[in-house]
Specification:
By secondary structure, this protein is of the alpha+beta class. It is 31% helix and 27% strand. It has helices at 23-33, 52-60, 68-87, 108-117, 158-161, and strands at residues 4-7, 12-14, 37-43, 89-99, 121-123, 129-131, 138-140, 146-147, 153-156, 166-173. The strands form 3 sheets. Strands 3, 4, 5, 8, 9 and 10 form a 6-stranded mixed beta sheet that branches. It has a two-stranded antiparallel ribbon with strand order 1-2. Helix 3 (68-87) crosses helix 4. The longest helix is centred in the middle third of the chain and has 20 residues, at 68-87. The radius of gyration is 17 Å and the shape is globular. The relative contact order is 0.16.
């Protein structure tokens, strides 16, 4: 019996369809063998400011406050990560960039930086959005995700998910 990771009316994703690799394996296969991937998921290092659980944990360890310098340093790291991750994507393939931060500087601004840097990058919809009744904003159909601060991005807010916050974007590499 094969383990099912995800299933809907149209598609079942099974274990054989998923390639698991740690970052070191991916970097080595990319640099030594020049392998490119159909899909890359970058769950980027962030300041964790959308994760109440992490904030409470770090306060216990002595991290008392978030500061702007930490945000800037993290954003610069994320730009390096997204740049390298996008290099690993095949033409016609996808990069999903996500964080558990509320910071525009770690989310939408990093995605915009990549879009400005690479003519091959295009932000694509993750799913169909619907207008929320009585609200000015939109939500992903069948999901607690709200529209992000730029088109074709999503934000999950703790008030809607009863969990930590999250940002997600899907970037296609033009070609094929």
């Amino acid at each position: 019996k094969k383990k099912k990771y995800w299933q809907d009316k149209e598609k079942t994703v099974e274990e054989k369809d998923i390639f698991f690799a740690n970052p070191i394996q991916m970097a080595l296969s990319y640099s030594q063998l020049n392998l490119k991937y159909d899909k890359v998921l970058l769950d980027a290092q962030c300041t964790l400011d959308a994760s109440v659980r992490h904030i409470l944990k770090y306060q216990k360890l002595g991290w008392k406050e978030w500061n702007a310098e930490l945000g800037r340093e993290t954003s610069e790291l994320q730009k390096k990560l997204i740049d390298k991750a996008f290099e690993m994507v095949k033409p016609g393939g996808y990069l999903v960039y996500c964080t558990c931060s509320f910071s525009r500087g770690q989310n939408e601004d990093v995605v915009l930086w990549l879009l400005e840097r690479s003519k091959e990058a295009e932000l694509v919809p993750i799913g169909e959005m619907e207008k929320r009744e009585g609200m000015a904003d939109y939500r992903l159909i069948g999901s607690p995700a709200d529209k992000g601060l730029i088109e074709n991005t999503l934000r999950f807010y703790p008030v809607n998910t009863s969990t930590s916050g999250m940002f997600i974007s899907k970037i296609r590499k033009k070609g094929e």
